[in-house]
Amino acid sequence: MASNTYGKLFAVTTFGESHGPAIGCVVDGCPPGLEIDAADFRHDLERRATGKSRHTSARHESDEVEILSGVYEGRSTGTPIALLIRNTDARSRDYAKIAEQFRPGHADYTYWHKYGIRDPRGGGRSSARETTMRVAAGVIARKWLAQRHGIRIQGFLSQLGDIRPASMDLSVVEDNPFFWPDAAQVPQLEAYMDALRKSGDSVGARVDVWADGVPPGWGEPIYGKLDGELAGALMSINAVKGVEIGVGFGAVTQKGSEHRDQLGPDGFASNHAGGILGGISSGQRVTCSVAFKPTSSLRLPVDSLDIYGNTVEVVTTGRHDPCVGIRATPICEAMVAAVLMDQALRHRAQCGDVEVPAIPTPTAIPG
Ligand code: EPS
């Protein structure tokens, strides 16, 4: 079965290719009455966009959203919301030379083997361009989650190559092109990226996302666990190679006495679980960490094959990100928002009538 849709009750379908006439999405299941305006999308789309700093691809897309359906007089009607963004700055000639070649590390090879045909222009459907529509759909989810449940979702870059934040200040994340939580390190990141760009190479990165205000109870054991859905949704982003919830792989070396998050009247004493126990939100901060691989479109020559089986030397020209993780923070936030909104509606459907005897709900303790 083709899979271009995420979610059951808040279902987002994306379509379009990097160099096609347009990209778009259909958001089905948004509750009626939510105020939605084309201007709402601008902020997050700009945060994700290329061409905003010298450290990302130089392609300049205006990313103007057209709302085609599902909104009447500024409010969602409960019918499918169709959003469209026209591609205006594609430069397909950059891909002419590699149209029949496989870039090592790229989806070229597997798309070819799966479908027997592919759109080579700009990576087609496998391009990071597709993530634009995830962010657009995420705007709707974030707005509903904030208004209905007071949920805040904030991401940041938590590693660039082997550089890690020396301190953590979320208030500076939006003030630099890296979404980096330590303002003092920004010059170091700039210098690192300038040298990397000059060398023609690329590097991986890690993005963390925190969701605050998620009430206890969201997530559907067993096959719709909140952590399972988050992992699947985040892993579906281009170039993602790993997802951790809470301490993630750090749990391997912990003892049980250390890992368990002690409960008391004032809340949990720690948050190794990342706000999820048994696949259900605990009321603590939900924490996710996402690993991005280094971009595979490089101008550095590499041996490969073409579609006829000939050995070729691949050199990728054009406009590419030396670190795709740099602008992935809004994409990860959007996927977390889509998962939470879907789970909120699913929880409401099955357990909306459940009344839990009043016991104190521990509040979130960061960590
Ligand atoms: C991308 C290659 C570049 C990026 C693109 C992602 O563009 P093109 O497809 O024209 O070569 O600019 O990113 C975007 C256009 C975007 O909006 O994110 C790639 O290979 O993934």
UniProtKB/TrEMBL annotation:
Note accompanying the cofactor annotation: Reduced FMN (FMNH(2)).
The pathway noted for it is:
Metabolic intermediate biosynthesis; chorismate biosynthesis; chorismate from D-erythrose 4-phosphate and phosphoenolpyruvate: step 7/7
The protein's annotated catalytic reaction(s) are: 5-O-(1-carboxyvinyl)-3-phosphoshikimate = chorismate + phosphate
MF GO annotations: chorismate synthase activity
Q: What class of enzyme is it?
A: lyase
Q: What is its EC number?
A: 4.2.3.5
The prosthetic group or cofactor this protein requires is:
FMNH2
Q: Which Pfam families match?
A: Chorismate_synt
Residues folding into a coiled coil are: none
Query: Which keywords accompany this UniProt record?
Result: Amino-acid biosynthesis, Aromatic amino acid biosynthesis, FAD, Flavoprotein, FMN, Lyase, NADP
Question: Per UniProt, where does NADP(+) bind?
Answer: 48, 54
**Residues passing through the membrane, by range:** none
Cross-referenced InterPro entries:
Chorismate_synth, Chorismate_synth_AroC_sf, Chorismate_synthase_CS
Binding residues for FMN? 125-127, 238-239, 278, 293-297, 319
Oligomeric state and interaction partners are given as: Homotetramer.
Concerning its family, UniProt says: Belongs to the chorismate synthase family.
What is the official name of this protein in its record?
A: Chorismate synthase
Q: Which organism is it from?
A: Novilysobacter avium
Lineage, top ranks: Bacteria, Pseudomonadati, Pseudomonadota, Gammaproteobacteria, Lysobacterales
